[in-house]
Write a structure and sequence with these properties.
This protein is mainly α and about 110 residues long. It has 7 helices and no strands.
């Protein structure tokens, strides 16, 4: 069901309100589903709800601090707000994880330096 929310975001044109509705239903059943939190964050951001979007994204990172994509997105938001040190700390946590195999944190670290 969460994938349906993502599909609605990626169709042309995106249907942000429908995506939001689907993802809210998913999160009503599983409030800790980090991908749904991240995708709902995207939907809210696209609809101009930046504070709510940030809150959901950072909540997802608190649930799964080693998720490379979540961490990259959270670090990017922090960097956009001028919080480079916090952004780098988020990225380093993922990079220092021996199980990390994603290039995402490295890509963002370059942007923060």
């Amino acid at each position: 069901m969460a994938a349906q929310g993502l599909i609605l975001q990626n169709q042309h044109p995106p249907d942000w309100p429908a995506s939001e509705a689907v993802l809210r239903r998913v999160l009503a059943q599983d409030p800790s589903m980090t991908d749904a939190l991240m995708w709902l964050s995207f939907s809210l951001l696209a609809q101009g709800h930046k504070e709510d979007s940030d809150e959901l994204l950072f909540r997802a990172v608190r649930i799964d601090p080693l998720h490379p994509t979540l961490s990259r997105n959270a670090a990017r938001r922090l960097a956009e707000r001028g919080e480079d040190r916090r952004a780098i700390a988020v990225v380093r946590r993922v990079i220092e994880n021996p199980e990390n195999s994603s290039w995402h944190p490295y890509d963002l670290l370059i942007d923060c330096i």
